[in-house]
């Protein structure tokens, strides 16, 4: 099993996305559920299938790109560790 680490930027991206969802719904439970579900999905998926995302060498060596529910997850794949670099939605570049 591979260790998954979120960079500060990726963590900030998740928090900003949860704030965006809260702004749309005014429901803190939905925003929290989104945050926890997205993070759990990333950790569970990439821990067991680290090469699931496609190669995204246009961003750098050993960078891969995984898409989940219209969100792009860029991550650096190292020997036993995955560093989640950033998480963004293509049509919402500020999130």
Task: Give a short overview.
41% of the residues lie in helices and 29% in strands. It contains two helices and five strands, in the order βααββββ.
Notes on the structure:
It is a single chain. The chain has helices at 8-25, 28-48, and strands at residues 3-6, 54-55, 63-68, 71-77, 81-89. With 95 residues, the chain is an alpha+beta fold. The protein has one domain: 2-Layer Sandwich (YaeB-like fold). The protein has a five-stranded mixed sheet. Strand 4 (71-77) and strand 5 form a beta hairpin.
Secondary structure: elements and pairs:
Blueprint: E1 3-6, H1 8-25, H2 28-48, E2 54-55, E3 63-68, E4 71-77, E5 81-89
Parallel strand pairs: 1-5
Antiparallel strand pairs: 2-3, 3-4, 4-5
Helix pairs in contact: 1-2
Top keywords for this entry?
single chain, 95 residues, alpha+beta, YaeB-like fold, 5-stranded mixed β-sheet, 41% helix
Number of helices: 2
CATH architecture: 2-Layer Sandwich
What number of domains?
A: 1
Radius of gyration: 13 Å
């Amino acid at each position: 099993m591979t260790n998954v680490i979120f960079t500060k930027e990726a963590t900030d991206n998740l928090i900003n996305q949860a704030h965006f969802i809260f702004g749309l719904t005014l429901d803190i439970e939905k925003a929290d559920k989104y945050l926890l579900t997205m993070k759990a999905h990333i950790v569970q998926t990439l821990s067991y299938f680290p090469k699931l995302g496609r190669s995204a060498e246009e961003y750098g060596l050993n960078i891969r790109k995984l898409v989940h529910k219209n969100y792009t997850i860029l991550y650096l794949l190292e020997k036993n560790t995955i560093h989640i670099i950033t998480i963004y939605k293509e049509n919402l570049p500020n999130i």
